[in-house]
Amino acid sequence: MGRKKIKMEMVQDMNTRQVTFSKRRTGLFKKASELATLCNAELGIVVFSPGGKPYSYGKPNLDAVTERFMRECEEEEEEEEEEERGKSRPKMKKVNERLDCLKREIEAEKKRGEERQAKLESAGDERFEKPIEKLTIDELKEYMDKLEAVHGRIQGQANKMQASSCLVFLSGDKASVE
After folding, report:
1. Cβ distance 106 to 161 under 8 Å?
2. CA-CA distance, 128 to 17, in Å (whole number)?
3. Which of 26, 50, 169, 176 is paired with 159 by a 20 to 30 Å CA distance?
4. In angstroms, how far is CA 116 from the centroid of its own chain?
5. pLDDT tens-digit profile of 35-91?
6. Which residues sit opposite 54 in a β-bridge?
């Protein structure tokens, strides 16, 4: 039994769209891994889910690929500046301003996260203040669920921040090319 040809248009049902995204993302990352292995290529991919969650893949890693991309783009930009003298400086100023703004936003988000953590720690559930050995099975399960939920939120925020920093680098390059 062969595969059914799928018409290339947006999937209307949200649940089906999410399943399609997950499967195709996995396939895309697998193909990227194969390309990197077969050709000894360095590559990076950033994909946002229909719900807005970022996913990334990089070989050897996304940061290394982004750094190399930015370094080579800066070399090209320096060559162009030598030819044009002064035309791209306003664009770089805008990119630097945007980068500074994003850095401030990241610092503010870190501060908000620390404040939330302090509130969570101070407003903790009294049941979980006693030693783990004295918790019942139901309390342990509930505690584990809460920890997994917090871990998921932290991982999601870390993915967003990583994707944002990579996109800042990439958007900075786009601005310098224009």
Report:
1. yes
2. 39
3. 176
4. 22
5. 999 999 999 999 999 888 999 999 988 888 888 888 887 777 776 666 666 555 566
6. 48
